[in-house]
Amino acid sequence: MNLIVNGSEVEIVSPPLTPLLHVLRDELDITGPKAGCQQGGCGTCTVLIDGEPRRSCLTAVAAVDGASITTIEGVGQAEELSAVQAAFYKHYAAQCGFCTPGMVLAATALIERKGGPVERDEVLEALGGHYCRCTGYVKIIDAVMAASRGEVDSVDDLPVPEPGQPEVLPKGSPA
Amino acid sequence: MRATALMIQRMTLDVLFPASADEAATLYGDGEGITVFAGGTIILPEIAAGRLVPERALMLHKSGLDEIRTDGDRVLIGAMVTVAALAEGDDPFLAGAASQVADGEIRRNATVGGNICSPPGDDAQRGDLGGALIALGARVRSTGAGGERTEPVEDFLAGDRAGRLVLELEYDGFERRTGAHSLRRRHAHSYAIAGAVACSRADGSDLRVAVTGVGPTAVRCRSVEQSRDPADVLKDVQPVDDAVATAAYRTAVLPTVVREALDHLEHA
Q1: What angle do CA A122, B187, B91 make, to 5 degrees?
Q2: Which residues 21-40 of B are in CB contact (within 8 Å) with A?
Q3: Phi, psi at residue B123, to the nearest 5°?
Q4: How far from A137 is each of A158, A170, B173, B243, CA to CA, in Å?
Q5: What's the longest Cα–Cα distance across chain B?
Q6: Taking the domains of chain A in order of start, what are their residue ranges?
Q7: Share of chain A above pLDDT 90, in %
Q8: Which of A55, A97, A167, B97 has the fewest CB atoms within 10 Å of its CB?
Q9: So what's the pLDDT on residue A79?
Q10: Domain coordinates in residue numbering, chain B
Q11: Closest approach of chain B CAs to the CA of A88, in angstroms?
């Protein structure tokens, strides 16, 4: 079996009924997709399969043989965040961060599919299967709507911590 | 490779990948010792956790059963059509029912065949599409011991589904009035507390009513169809207790849910 993971073609040796989640985490050491509930209920394992968000814990690897997989590692870079990631940063939409990979990927797919500003209801529908136990969701929803409106088109104004230095949050940070 | 993958490797003995519906039927045979793997949304976590150890697994994703097609007035839905495809399909009634199942991400894995084969879960009833399919008068073509047969969805659900491989569903495409109502919360794992679905011909004749989520399978409500009295639903079905709702609560609300569905149909 083969997968294209974040643009690179890889051969898969895991058995056919292995959940894609475990192929990514255990065989390929790609740990962005988190192993949360592992029964489809929490959404933190969500990855993009040929551009569509799906739960990697519910997807047998053989069922997506040959597909293109995007994990959070394939979205943006530490110095160059994607629009959704930058909006999450700016709106304090991540606290512990465990749900963030799934949230960002689902939001990215929603915005790509819509191709323009998304409404609150659409965000609720798209993220309805994603649990966050920290934020209360409001900041996440705000971030996704802002990203969809292109309100975060530059991350130049975001503070980038120097290596070895503690991150300095902007004034007024609720964190 | 770490422990999880190694564990699965030891357990999985034989995984079959039929390339056509005929090959799937042949490999399935009488179904003895075969676990059918459709979308995997229910059984993959069971397999991954070691709670289910299939002797042989039949994976259907390459079997060509994932098409919706029409043959004259009939609409045919392959067993491997995803619930997402149905939710985005041409039939607004089925699309509405499908878009109530789980969430968009799970619907991209979940299949129509799996939905009508799913047994009740530990915490909740499953198979939310059953009611809509019964109301449409849909039929199931399945194979297994005794060969292939086609039967109404309500008969299939009432029979021994475990020994059948679903190949296709079909229903007659004609102008209908439809109505549906369900009690649910928006979340991936929130199954309906109770749902009712009603369909009739455009002139109101041939009323078909079904309820879902109140017992182990969706059920056709012939008493309600005859009397058009929502209270008669309790002659057709006995609600059960689960983690989602008590039988007493379901019994109390079900006539109202049915009345809502009939009202929607009346004013459709």
Answers
A1: 65
A2: 37, 39-40
A3: -105, -25
A4: 22, 21, 42, 25
A5: 63
A6: 2-74, 83-148
A7: 82
A8: A167
A9: 84
A10: 13-59, 68-266
A11: 21
What CATH architecture applies to the domain B13-59? 2-Layer Sandwich (3.30)
In the CATH hierarchy, which fold is given to the domain comprising B68-266? 3.30.465
**Are the Cβ atoms of A27 and B104 closer than 8 angstroms?**
no
Note whether A2-74 and A83-148 share their fold: no
Homologous superfamily of the A2-74 domain (CATH): Beta-grasp domain (3.10.20.30)
Do B105 and A60 make contact, defined as CB atoms within 8 angstroms?
Answer: no
- Report the complex ipTM: 0.91
The average confidence (pLDDT) of chain B is: 92
Count CA atoms within 13 Å of residue B230 on its CB side.
Answer: 19
Residue of B nearest to A110 (CA): B104
Does B45 contact A39 at a Cβ distance shorter than 8 Å?
A: yes
Give SS3 for A64: helix
Q: Which CATH superfamily is domain A83-148 in?
A: [2Fe-2S]-binding domain (1.10.150.120)
